[in-house]
Amino acid sequence: MGNSLRCCLACVLPCGALDLIRIVHLNGYVEEITRHITAGEVLKAHPNHVLSKPCAQGVVRRILILSPESELKRGSIYFLIPASSLPQNKKRVPSKAKAHSKKSHPQGGDVPDCDRHLAISKKKSSSRRDRRHSRTDSTWRPHLESIYEDS
């Protein structure tokens, strides 16, 4: 499934305006929506499905399931996935259990995991860059060794 979605993304991204909401179905059909819409409206038209947003964290790809209340953003691509094809741990959690899990992890707020990961990686790369620049303040000198020849 990952390869077919990647191929489909390559076909969709270069052409088309950024003011569209694109929903990619499992069969490859791309639904383009120009008006404001919530995930719940899409899910009403497609029962027993979930909407997910693509999020790649390094090598591992994660499935981020959108809540029915979330509003879809223009210029973004969403995937409509049958609920039966999801792993058991990704199935919808009742709202009471979801509220309890949010209280136990208050640090993140409303920021998605992939955005939080991106912010952390930017902090790490900037600190690495700072260390590199501090080394380049001194002048570069080659490390040469003498080569002895047999006579």
Automatic annotation (TrEMBL):
Keyword Signal: yes
Bias (Basic residues) ranges: 89-105, 119-134
Signal sequence segment: 1-17
Entry keyword set: Signal
Ranges for region Disordered: 87-151
Keyword Oxidoreductase: no
Bias kind Basic and acidic residues: ranges: 135-151
A Pfam family the protein falls into: PADRE
Name recorded for this polypeptide: Uncharacterized protein
